[in-house]
C-alpha cells in the first residue's frame, strides 16, 4: 500500500474530507438516540410540550445536517476511489507499454487484462468503502458505547462485551479467505485469456468446426471459476448472520436486565429504547468495518498482482534517453557475432554466430526455409528483442546505446503478422506519421501500390476498417501496412514477407518503386520467392539459424548449394504448373 501514497497525494482532499464528513455524520447517529431518550423520559412522562417541541426541532436540524454530511462524504469517497483507480490503471498501462515482448510473454495477455481491469476494480471498491467507513465506524462504535455507559453503567458493559466476539469472527474469516481470493483471481486470468483467444480467432474456430469443443472447454473453466468464487465468497456471507446472532443475544440481555430495573423503578423506558438503538448501531458499524476488512483482504490479493506488473523489471533498457533525437541515422547495419534464443535457459540458439554487413541505401533480400530464423534476425534490429551474444550496430553504434525512440523511429518494420486497427484507412495510415499531410498519405500509398484500390472504394481514404482490417483482402491489408511504414520516413525499412498475398505483377512493381524512389533508404526484404529478391544488391541465405551465403544472384548460384536448391525447386514447381 505504501506506494499508493504517491498517487493519493494528487487527490489528497478526497482522502481528507471524505472520512471527515462521514465522522461528522456519525456524531449525529449517536446524539439522536440520547435526545430521544430524554424526550421520552422527561417530556412524555411530565407532559412537557415545549420541551418536546424544542428537542424535536433540534433532532430535525441534526438529521438534516447528517443528510448533507452523509451525501457529501459518500460522494467524496466515491470520487476519490475512482480517481485513484484511474491513476493506477494509467500507470499500469504505461508500464505495459514499456514491456519487452519477453515481459509480455511471461505474464500472458489475459492476465495483464485482468490485472488492469478486474484487479484495479477490487482496489477501487475497497478504497471507496475504506473512505466511507474507516473513521466513521470506529467513531460510531466508541460513541455508542460511551453513550450507553452514560445512560446506564451496568448495561453499557453488555454493549461493550460484544466487541471481542465480533473481532474474533472477523479475524477468523479474514485469515481463511485471503488465499482463496488469490486462487479466484488466477481463475479469472485463465478465463480472460481463453475469451480473448476465442473471440479474436473466430474464423479459425469456425473453419475447424470447433464451436462445440470451445463451448465445452469454456463451460469447464467457467464452472471452475464459479466454484472458486463461491469458495472465497461464502466465508464472507457467514459474517452477517453470525454478528446478528451475537447482537441479538446482547439485546436479549439488555432487555432482561433493563426490564428488571424498570419494574423496580430504577430506570425509564426511554433509556431502554436508546440502549437498543445503540446496540443496533454497534452492529451496523461493526458489519461495515468487517466488510472493509474483508474487501481489504481481497484488494490486497489484487494489489499484489498489480504490483507484480509495476515492479517487473523491463528487460529492455533505453540507454540513450538523453541523446539528441534530431541526428538522423544513415542506415548502415552490422551484425558482429550475434547469437540469440527466445528461451534464455535453452543452450541451443535460434540464431548462431551471425556476421553481416549492410551498407546504407542497399536493397537486401533475405531468403531461407521456413523456421530458419529470418524474422528473428530482422526483429533484433529495432530491438524487439536483445541479442544474447555479440552486437548489432546501426551507423557503427551498438543499437543498445541508441535511444529506443530514435532507433525505432528510424527503423520501419512491416511484420509478417501485421495488424490494422478499427478506424478509417486514413487514421490507420497516420499511425506511421501523425503530422503527414493528405498528399503525403497519397504518395506513400502510391509507392505501396495501395492508392489504386483505396481510390476504388466509395469513401476512399475515409473508408472504415473493421477490427484487424477484416473487410480488406489479405493483399490489400499488406499494401496498407507497407504504406503505413513508409509514412514514418524511415532510414531502414524491413518487409517481412509483406507481399506474400500480393500478385506477382504488383509485387514486382512495388519492388521497382522501392528501388527507384527510396534511394537513400536501406531496404531489407524477406521473401519466399527467389524472384522477389533476384535483383537485390545483396541476397542473404539462411538455414537453421546461420547465414550460409551472401552475394548477388549470380554469385550465389555459383557458390551456394542451399541457394541453388531453393532456386531449382521453385523453378521446377513453376514448370509443373504452367501459367502459374
Ligand atoms: N516468439 C517466439 N518464441 C519462441 N520461439 C520462437 C518465437 N518466434 C519464433 N520462434 C522460433 O524461432 C525459430 C525461427 O523462427 P522465425 O520466425 O525467425 O523463422 P522464419 O525464418 O521467419 O520462418 P518463416 O519463413 O516461416 O516466417 C523457429 O524455430 C520458431 O519456432
Ligand atoms: Mg518469418
Walkthrough of the structure:
With 580 residues, the protein is of the alpha/beta class. It folds into 2 domains: 4-311, ABC transporter type 1, transmembrane domain (ABC transporter transmembrane region fold, Up-down Bundle); 333-576, Rossmann fold (3-Layer(aba) Sandwich). It has 19 helices and 12 strands. It has helices spanning 4-10, 12-46, 49-98, 101-107, 109-133, 136-151, 153-200, 202-207, 211-263, 269-311, 374-379, 404-410, 425-430, 438-447, 451-456, 474-486, 504-517, 553-559, 561-576, and strands at residues 333-340, 351-358, 363-368, 389-394, 397-398, 411-414, 423-424, 464-465, 492-496, 522-526, 538-543, 546-551. The strands form 3 sheets. The protein has a 6-stranded mixed sheet. Helix 3 packs antiparallel against helix 5, helix 6 (136-151) packs antiparallel against helix 7 and helix 9 packs antiparallel against helix 10. The longest helix has 53 residues, at 211-263. The chain is elongated. Magnesium ion is lined by residues 374-375, 416, 496-497.
Amino acid at each position: 500500500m505504501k506506494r499508493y501514497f504517491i498517487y493519493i497525494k494528487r487527490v489528497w482532499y478526497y482522502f481528507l474530507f471524505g472520512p471527515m464528513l462521514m465522522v461528522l455524520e456519525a456524531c449525529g447517529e449517536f446524539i439522536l438516540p440520547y435526545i430521544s431518550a430524554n424526550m421520552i423520559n422527561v417530556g412524555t412522562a411530565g407532559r412537557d410540550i415545549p420541551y418536546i417541541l424544542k428537542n424535536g426541532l433540534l433532532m430535525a436540524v441534526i438529521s438534516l445536517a447528517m443528510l448533507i454530511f452523509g451525501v457529501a462524504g459518500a460522494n467524496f469517497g466515491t470520487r476519490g476511489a475512482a480517481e485513484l483507480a484511474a491513476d493506477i490503471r494509467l500507470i499500469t498501462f504505461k508500464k505495459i507499454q514499456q514491456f519487452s515482448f519477453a515481459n509480455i510473454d511471461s505474464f500472458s495477455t489475459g492476465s495483464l487484462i485482468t490485472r488492469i481491469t478486474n484487479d484495479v476494480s477490487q482496489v477501487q471498491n475497497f478504497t471507496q468503502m475504506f473512505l466511507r467507513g474507516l473513521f466513521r465506524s470506529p467513531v460510531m462504535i466508541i460513541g455508542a458505547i460511551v453513550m450507553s455507559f452514560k445512560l446506564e453503567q451496568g448495561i453499557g458493559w453488555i454493549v461493550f462485551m460484544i466487541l471481542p466476539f465480533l473481532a474474533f469472527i472477523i479475524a477468523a474469516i479474514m485469515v481463511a479467505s485471503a488465499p482463496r481470493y488469490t486462487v479466484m483471481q488466477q481463475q479469472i486470468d485463465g478465463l480472460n485469456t481463453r475469451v480473448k483467444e476465442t473471440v479474436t480467432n473466430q474464423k479459425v474456430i469456425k473453419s475447424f468446426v470447433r464451436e462445440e469443443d470451445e463451448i465445452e472447454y469454456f463451460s469447464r473453466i467457467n464452472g471452475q471459476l464459479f466454484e472458486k468464487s463461491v469458495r472465497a465468497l461464502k466465508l464472507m456471507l457467514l459474517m452477517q448472520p453470525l454478528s446478528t446472532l451475537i447482537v441479538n443475544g446482547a439485546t436479549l440481555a439488555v432487555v432482561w436486565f433493563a426490564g428488571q430495573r424498570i419494574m423496580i423503578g430504577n430506570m425509564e423506558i426511554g433509556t431502554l429504547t436508546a440502549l437498543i438503538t445503540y446496540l443496533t448501531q454497534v452492529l451496523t458499524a461493526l458489519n461495515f468495518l468487517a466488510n472493509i476488512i474483508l474487501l481489504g483482504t481481497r484488494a490486497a490479493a489484487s494489489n499484489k498482482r498489480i504490483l507484480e506488473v509495476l515492479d517487473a523489471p523491463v528487460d529492455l533498457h533505453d540507454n540513450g534517453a538523453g541523446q539528441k533525437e534530431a541526428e538522423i541515422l544513415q542506415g548502415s547495419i552490422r551484425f558482429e557475432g550475434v547469437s540469440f534464443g527466445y528461451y534464455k535457459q535453452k543452450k541451443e540458439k535460434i540464431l548462431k554466430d551471425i556476421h553481416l554487413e549492410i551498407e546504407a541505401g542497399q536493397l537486401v533480400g533475405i531468403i531461407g526455409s521456413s523456421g530458419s530464423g529470418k524474422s528473428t534476425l530482422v526483429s533484433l534490429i529495432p530491438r524487439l528483442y536483445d541479442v544474447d551474444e555479440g552486437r548489432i550496430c546501426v551507423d557503427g553504434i551498438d543499437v543498445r546505446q541508441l535511444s529506443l525512440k530514435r532507433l525505432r523511429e528510424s527503423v520501419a518494420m512491416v511484420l509478417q503478422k501485421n495488424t490494422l486497427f478499427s478506424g478509417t484507412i486514413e487514421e490507420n495510415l497516420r499511425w506511421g506519421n501523425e503530422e503527414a499531410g493528405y498528399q503525403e498519405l497519397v504518395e506513400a500509398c502510391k509507392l505501396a501500390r495501395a492508392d489504386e484500390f483505396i481510390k476504388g472504394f466509395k469513401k476512399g481514404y475515409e473508408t472504415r476498417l473493421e477490427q484487424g482490417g477484416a473487410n480488406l483482402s489479405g493483399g490489400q491489408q499488406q499494401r496498407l501496412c507497407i504504406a503505413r511504414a513508409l509514412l514514418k520516413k524511415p532510414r531502414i525499412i524491413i518487409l517481412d514477407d509483406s507481399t506474400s498475398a500480393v500478385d506477382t505483377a504488383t509485387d514486382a512493381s512495388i519492388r521497382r518503386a522501392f528501388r527507384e524512389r527510396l534511394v537513400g533508404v536501406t531496404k531489407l526484404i524477406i521473401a519466399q520467392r527467389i524472384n522477389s529478391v533476384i535483383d537485390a544488391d545483396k541476397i542473404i541465405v539462411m538455414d537453421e539459424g546461420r547465414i550460409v551465403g551472401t552475394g548477388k544472384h549470380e554469385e550465389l548460384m555459383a557458390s551456394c548449394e542451399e541457394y541453388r536448391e531453393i532456386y531449382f525447386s521453385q523453378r521446377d514447381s513453376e514448370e509443373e504448373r504452367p501459367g502459374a
